Amino acid sequence: MLRLVLVLALLGAALAYYAEQVGLAVGYPPFIPMVYWKYSGEHKYDLRVTGVNAAVKVKVDGQLNDGSLEVIIAQNGRQIGQSRRYKGRFSDIALFYVNPGLYTVRFKLQDARGYARLDWVSTRFEY
C-alpha cells in the first residue's frame, strides 16, 4: 500500500513539474471543460455555416487566474469581425454575423492557468 502511495505521489510531482515547465491543457471541448496550467497555444475548429441570415455563436464560461483567452472567427485565414479577449472570471455569448461558408473558430491562449468551458454553434435564420 505504501509503495502505491509513493508511486502516485511521484507521478503527481512529475506531472506538476511538466506543467510548470511546458504547460498543460486537459479536456475536450465542447463536451468536457478545459483545464489549463501555464498553457500557451491555440485550438482550431472548423464550422460550416448555412442560411440566409447566418451567424456563429460562441459561448465561453470560466475563470483564468493567469493569462488570457482570445476568441477569433476566421475564413480562409482572414479574421472576421473583432476578436474577443477574456481574463479573470468570465461568462459571455459572442455572436458573429457571417455569410454562408466554411469558417474556423480559433481559441488562442496565452499563459493560461484555470478552466474554461468552450462551446460554438452555427445558427441560421431563414425567413
Automatic annotation (TrEMBL):
This is Uncharacterized protein.
